[in-house]
Amino acid sequence: MIAGNLIDGRAIAEQIHQETAQRVARLAVRGIQPGLVFVRVGEDPASKVYVGMKEKTSTRLGISSRTHALPATTTEAELLGLIARLNVDPRVHGILVQAPVPRHIAEARIYSAVAPEKDVDGFHPQNVGKLMLGDPTGFRPCTPAGIHELLIRSQVSIEGAEVVVLGRGNIVGKPMALILMQKSRHANATVTLCHSQTRHIDSHCLRADILIAALGSPEFVKASMVKPGAVVIDVGVNRVLDPAAKNGSRLVGDVDFLNVQPVAGKITPNPGGVGPMTIAILMQNTVRAAEMAVVGS
Ligand code: GUN
Fold first, then answer.
1. How far does the centroid of ligand 1 lie from the alpha carbon of residue 1, in Å?
2. Residue % of the chain over a pLDDT of 90
3. Which residues of 168-189 are buried (b: 16+ CB within 10 A; e: fewer)?
4. Whose CA is nearest to atom 1 of ligand 1?
5. Domains delineated in the chain
6. Of 151, 134, 138, which Cα lies nearest the Cα of 268?
7. Is 8 an active-site residue?
8. What does each C-alpha distance from 39 to 71, 104, 217, 250 come to in angstroms?
9. What is the mean pLDDT of residues 72-93?
10. 236 neighbors 215 (Cβ within 8 angstroms)
11. 238-241/249-252 β-pairing
């Protein structure tokens, strides 16, 4: 199949935005506006773009947002101080510290410092623990939760499916595997998690009904690694040198899209697949944090 097998992440994200905007409107009736604060440390160009896109979407949906852009020389203590102030600010319902942070700051300490009820990224150990336990009261990390929604809303059958996740990062690979292996509706998959030390990775991939590539290796997934009809999800954003491109480089995913698309049953384009879903779930998590704050008050 060549045409018609694309999973349109932008369209599905837009559906979720409509639902989120309605929840924002219901909160407005009660005089509440969800508030999201971004914290960015240093000058990572990709982080600037991502935070800019998230801010724009917040504004469009009626979520108030602001960004603290801190210099790369910011100390861990200063960053922890800012988080402590945001944790007790009642106008702030969600706090997102954009990764990566500079090397002199311990990322794990930062994520542990965000109040779990404002942790719309789902990176606090309490939320990670709830995800592992299958407790739905926590926040799920935005990218894997977005992929889960993408699969559900594309009518992909997950229950009993062979899922292969490539990559074991804390942001995507590990939580993705946890979400899909839960004993619950739209989960119950048999999950294999492959990584840089996995032997015979091709043979694992070839078994997959659903193949999720989140390993950060340009065009790693080749057509010969995909079972005909499999659902292929490309999470990768890799900048590769390309002398023919305007600025000497271009972005490619973790999937060799041109050659894999004809083999796949369904496949995400990249861009326009997973990326918009990450933002949609972030907005959804933020509105949920605001709703929970109302109930809790
Ligand atoms: N960097 C890459 N993805 C993410 C994400 O989902 N959240 C944060 N905070 N940083 C990221």
1. 33
2. 98
3. bbebbbbbbbbbbbbeeebbeb
4. 99
5. 32-116 (3.40.50.10860), 142-274 (3.40.50.720)
6. 151
7. no
8. 11, 16, 27, 27
9. 98
10. yes
11. antiparallel
